[in-house]
Every structure is written in C-alpha cells, then in structure tokens.
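Today's session is about reading a structure prediction critically. Students often jump straight to the picture, but the first step is always the sequence itself: look for stretches that repeat, for charged clusters, for runs of hydrophobic residues. Only then move on to the predicted structure, which in these notes is written as discrete structure tokens rather than atom positions. Here is the chain we will use throughout the hour.
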Amino acid sequence: MNSLITMNTHRKNHSESDKGRQEIHVDLQGKEGKKLTTFQLQKYNVSQKILKVLSDTQARAILFSTVKDGKTTIDLFDEHRIPLSSIYKKISNLEKVGLLKVENHIISENGKKFKVYRSKISGADITIRSLEPVITLSPN
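Below is the predicted structure for this chain, in token form.
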C-alpha cells in the first residue's frame, strides 16, 4: 500500500494474554509532495487524538479509575480532586475517541440524574518505533 498514512486495527489472537487486544498502527513515512486524502487524515487524527488524550495525566486518572466500577462525575471529583469543569472536559475528550462510555444513569435522593462512566479499555501500551507509533488497547 503506497499511502502516506496507514492505520490497521485488528485483533491479535496469538496467546490467551493478548486475547482481545487491538493495535493501531500509524505510518508517518510517505512520499514527499503528496497531499493527504480526507480518509487518511481521519485515520491519522484518530490515533493522534488517542495519544493526546492518553498523555493527559488527569484524563488517564479518570479513565483507569473507571476500569473496575463505573463512576459519576461527583465520584471522580471526590477521588481525584480534579475541578468538575475539567472532569467534564476530560470525559468529553475520552468519549470522543471511544475510550469511555456511559454505563448507566442513576437518580440521587433529591431527584438529580447522573451518568455513570466506565472505561472501555483496561490497559494501553504505546510503542514508538522510528516515526511509527503503535497503540495497543486492551478492552475492558
């Protein structure tokens, strides 16, 4: 394939410990002078957005604290002491790249409705070989 950027998402089944893991490959080496197609830019943007979100310490704290149990924004505030406005922004970014989901809704004693967020991944490995980052996500 002679595209400027290639990204392959596939499941590995080499061993039981790798079961369900996904790899995203982005090859940034290409021919000079060629313009990227919209499709190529979208693939590149997804991996770059995932890298950007995972590089944020607070976003990682939110993401990996919701692996075992779903949590509301109030739970996340109590646990991490991150300002609520930042929590909402980090949650939005995590949802946009598909790493966090709304597991369900709960209603408090005073009738307020809260979303319960849960991580869609249980782990992430990032390897950079030359100019090619490889993101390996383990589903939750």
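Discussion point for the tutorial: Strands lie at 9-11, 22-25, 100-107, 113-119, 121-129, 132-139.
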